[in-house]
Write a structure and sequence with these properties.
Structural class: mainly alpha
Number of strands: 2
Largest sheet: 2 strands, antiparallel
Strand content: under 5%
Strand order of the largest sheet: 1-2
Distance between the termini: 31 Å
Low-confidence stretches: 1-5
Number of domains: 2
Oligomer: single chain
Radius of gyration: 19 Å
Helix content: 55-70%
Length: 185
C-alpha cells in the first residue's frame, strides 16, 4: 500500500496590491480561481504592461510542483507566442467543446483561457462566456439544461452552479445504470 498525498487547498498570497500574487500548491476550486483572477486583475491595474507580458508576469506567480512543471514545459512556449496569440486564443475558445470532459472542468478550462485575454479586446464578458460555454455543451447535458429551464437564469455564476449540479446528477445516473447493466451481464 502506497502513501496517498494529503489534499490541501491552494492558497493565494499577495504582499501588496502592486505586487503579483502567488498561488501555492494544492487543490483548486472555482473560488480560488476567482480569487486568483481578481488579485491578478488588481495587480495589473498598478502596472503599465500589456498582452503577453501580463500573462508571463502573473503566470510566474504560481508555485508548487504542478505549476513549476507546467512552467518548465510551457514557459518557453510563452516566450515564443506569436504576435497574433490573442486572436488564436479567442478562436481556440470559440471552437472548444465539452466532449467527454466533466462539465465543470470544461467550464473552468474555458474561463481560464478567457482570463488570459483580460484587458484585451477579445476578453469575453460573463454573458458571452456563458453563451460560449453553452454552445460547446455535450448534447445530452444541453437538452437536460433546456428541459430544466436554465435559459431563464440571468446570473452567470448561478447558471454555472446549476449546470454543474445537473451534470453531476447525470453522471451519477449514468454510473448507476452502468453498474446495473454490469450486474446483469
Amino acid at each position: 500500500m502506497g502513501l496517498s498525498p494529503q489534499c490541501t487547498k491552494a492558497v493565494i498570497t499577495q504582499s501588496a496590491p502592486n505586487c503579483p500574487p502567488t498561488l501555492s500548491e494544492g487543490d483548486i476550486d472555482a473560488s480560488i480561481l476567482w480569487d486568483w483572477f481578481m488579485k491578478c486583475k488588481n495587480f495589473l491595474r498598478h502596472k503599465d504592461i500589456s498582452g503577453l507580458t501580463m500573462v508571463k508576469t502573473v503566470t510566474y506567480g504560481m508555485s508548487g510542483v504542478w505549476a513549476i512543471c507546467w512552467l518548465a514545459t510551457s514557459g518557453p512556449l510563452l516566450d515564443a507566442l506569436p504576435s497574433n496569440w490573442e486572436h488564436t486564443m479567442c478562436m481556440d475558445i470559440l471552437h472548444f467543446c465539452q466532449g467527454s470532459k466533466v462539465f465543470f472542468n470544461y467550464a473552468l478550462e474555458l474561463m481560464g483561457k478567457n482570463n488570459l485575454l483580460a484587458r484585451t479586446d477579445s476578453f469575453m464578458n460573463d454573458k458571452f462566456m456563458r453563451e460560449t460555454i453553452e454552445a460547446g455543451l455535450e448534447s445530452e447535458l444541453s437538452c437536460e439544461c433546456n428541459r430544466k429551464g436554465l435559459g431563464a437564469i440571468v446570473e452567470f455564476s448561478e447558471w454555472l452552479e446549476k449546470v454543474k449540479r445537473i451534470n453531476e446528477k447525470c453522471q451519477q445516473c449514468f454510473e448507476e445504470m452502468s453498474q446495473a447493466i454490469a450486474k446483469l451481464s
